[in-house]
User: What shape does this take?
Amino acid sequence: MRVEAKMRKDRKTKKLAKRIEAGQIAVINHIDLDEVAARSLVEAKVRLVINADESISGRYPNAGPEILVDNGILIIDNIGKEAFDLLEENDTILVEDGKIFKNGLQVASGLLMDKEVVVQKIKDAYDNIGEELDRFIDNTIEYAKKEKGLILGDVPIPKMSTVYDERHVLVVVRGHNYKSDLQMMLSYIEEVKPILVGVDGGADALMEFGYTPDVVVGDMDSVSDEALKAAKEIVVHAYVDGRAPGLGRVENLGLKSVVMPSPGTSEDIAMLIAYEYNAKLIVALGTHSNMIDFLEKGRKGMASTFLVRLKIGAKLVDAKGVSTLYKSRLKFKYIIALILTALFPVLIIASLSPKAQTFMQLLQLKLKLLLNI
Assistant: This one.
């Protein structure tokens, strides 16, 4: 394997994916590369990925690396943070069999990860998942005790201008299969006209499909300026102590917002706000709802999500994976049945026609002659 191309690098893969050009080499520093980050690199049509960290550490079976290699993008893995610092933005580098050359000198090397290597590493990760599950459960229980105020009314809900009362609310998160799931929900959006809530990058997902988010909720680290400017209302998710790193970005854009200090995730507070303002139904799309999802987000437990879902109960419909539910193809026997059903009234009408009756009698006579009946 020999690749020579210009490189771009960033410690935040999602930021890099927005500015890297097709055919360039992506240099990242991303342990346990997650699915959403990997898909963003695939969509950017990068030629090769060089990771300063381990793309699969073995803690759990993360999906990112397999998505890359399945799309023909190899990975040079774990080159180290020193080598990451040596490589500079827009350098043209040569990569050959896991070795990285700059100006004719080797500056780094790493493990060449192809399909075979990735599959084996994922298998090993599955073998180790028991220990990670134990830690995850312990952390979830521990944090649930600390964060129970989230559903007991200890966390104040900000005053909103959006009217949720008796409305459907669609909460969009840029999670697993979010694009295909959103595609399946288009008729629902057109017919029901729900309040559209984008959680950080989920706002951009809505805009990709031609919709303007009514509300953007998040810490503002992955939503675009365009989505923020288009949104009718912005809720900045702050730490429990009131610090809100994302507030400065919103203010620099000259936009107004409300701040909600809260433990947990931004998608949790998006659903909690909708519930507290008496939404009729909350539809969650692309949300994080299992251990792998949370480990990919770098969280050690899912206490807040468990608590919020416990509170909102029957008002929540989880649309994650809806595209998979309707992926099955129409079977041949159903097509035949559909054709016969459509022909039935035609045959009834035709049988009442004198010309059709004469034709049927002639056809019957010919069949008898052919079959010697």
Remarks:
- The longest helix spans residues 115-146.
- The chain is about 45% helix and 20% strand.
